[in-house]
Design brief:
- This is ABC transporter permease.
- Keywords: Membrane, Transmembrane, Transmembrane helix.
- It comes from Metasolibacillus meyeri.
- It is elongated and about 95 Å long.
- The protein has a two-stranded antiparallel ribbon.
- Helices cover 65% and strands 3% of the residues.
- Helix 13 runs antiparallel to helix 14.
- It is built from 17 helices and two strands.
- By secondary structure, the chain is an all-alpha fold.
- The chain starts with a helix and ends in a 9-residue tail after the last helix.
């Protein structure tokens, strides 16, 4: 059995297709670290000139109104005056904190600024969130602005009480570990899961090319399938090696950050966010991601035993990975129990941060439920695969 494991492992890492996947992932990681990460332009970046211009414009309006008889001023102007007088002190405190280099004071003032600004912006026809939330005709721009402002308010509130050194890169989420956080909430999980599918797609089918050689291993088919699954899982973990090159480059450029950085977590109350450390966030993401790796490996093994076609393996694997896109719709959680579909948990970072709960308007989606559903699916497929492999009609090598 050990001999067969070493044979499969050697075959796996000598496979040109697998080597190409690792090489392509390395290229993507380097390109991202060198070209894309430094150009990251957050919607809510720290722009002193913009803050100052906004403050001076509002302050000029306040000074003008102070010299006028307010009984003769239009109601909308009075409403604007009231809001400007409420928010301008926070902008002044932000500017003073940046000028003095007191980043803890800046975090305190900015947290308050987000909460106050959001209070009079959300679904107010006279005010709007920054233009970045309205790109590409986003019909949920107001909701996304609400989420981002309350999330930022919570994040800065935690920074204000931090006992570690703060920095602008930390505030703008440019550090290496924060970049991983952002990518986990974006396309990285699906990218890695697709790579696992590509690594696994012919792991069983290739045996047809060397039937005589493989008949020399006196091992039951079900044992061979388990060994193949373990080999692919090992290969899946190796996917993180080329990614680490990009991580190191980003860390050198913008700092690495640390695991105590706060990550806001959405709660059932849209106006309230909880918080967890970045270390806990990444650990939960990794748990879900590993279960997805095993899930895709099991899908390929089952399809390989039954259908024996590499392209069908690929097609079914892609359907499983992208199945959520067939039913995803904002707010659909009110109508469908989408939290009971294992495929609803593919966006790993958004599940852990509960951002997906916000999108779906679902109170029941959770990391624990997702892990249970994936684990049950894996066990069921594994049992079916092993049972089928005991049937002589489905021998791996004939």
């Amino acid at each position: 059995m050990w001999t067969y494991f070493k044979f499969e492992l050697m075959q796996f890492f000598k496979n040109r297709k697998n080597i190409a996947i690792y090489a392509l992932l390395l290229f993507v990681a380097l390109f991202y670290a060198i070209r894309i990460a430094p150009a990251y332009d957050p919607i809510e970046k720290i722009d002193v000139d913009k803050i100052e211009a906004r403050y001076l414009t509002r302050d000029a309006f306040i000074q003008e109104m102070s010299n006028r008889d307010l009984s003769t001023v239009h109601g909308s102007a009075l409403a604007g005056l009231s809001i400007f007088e409420m928010v301008n002190p926070h902008d002044l405190h932000r500017l003073e904190a940046l000028e003095s280099g007191n980043l803890h004071k800046y975090a305190t003032a900015t947290s308050e600024w987000y909460y106050v600004t959001n209070g009079f912006t959300y679904f107010n026809e006279n005010f709007s969130y920054p233009a970045g939330y309205y790109k590409y005709g986003n019909e949920y721009s107001e909701d996304d602005g609400l989420y981002a402002y309350l999330e930022s308010g919570k994040r800065y509130g935690e920074f204000a009480n931090a006992d570690y050194e703060l920095s602008i890169n930390l505030f703008e989420q440019r550090t290496a570990w924060q970049t991983v956080e952002r990518l986990m909430k974006g396309a990285l999980p699906i990218t890695l899961i697709v790579c696992v599918l590509l690594l696994a797609v012919e792991i069983v089918i290739k045996d047809r090319l060397h039937p005589t050689l493989l008949k020399g291993f006196p091992i039951a088919d079900w044992k061979k399938l388990i060994i193949k699954g373990v080999v692919i899982l090992i290969g899946s973990f190796i996917l993180f090696v080329p990614l680490s090159a990009g991580f190191l480059i980003i860390g050198v450029q913008a700092g690495f950050g640390h695991f105590q950085i706060p990550v806001p977590i959405f709660t059932h109350d849209v106006w309230v966010f909880d918080v967890m450390s970045l270390g806990v966030f990444l650990a939960k993401c990794l748990q879900l991601l590993v279960l997805w790796f095993i899930m895709i490996i099991e899908v390929v093994l089952l399809c390989s035993v039954v259908l024996r076609n590499e392209m069908i393996n690929l097609g079914i694997g892609l359907i499983v990975i992208f199945a959520e896109y067939f039913y995803f719709n904002r707010g659909v959680g009110f109508q469908w129990a989408i939290e009971n579909y294992p495929t609803s948990y593919i966006h790993v970072g958004q599940i852990v941060s509960k951002m997906r709960n916000f999108y779906y308007s679902s109170v029941n989606m959770s990391t624990v439920l997702g892990m249970k559903l994936l684990a049950i699916s894996i066990v069921v497929m594994l049992v079916i695969t092993l049972c089928i492999s005991l049937n002589k009609r489905f021998k791996l090598v004939r």
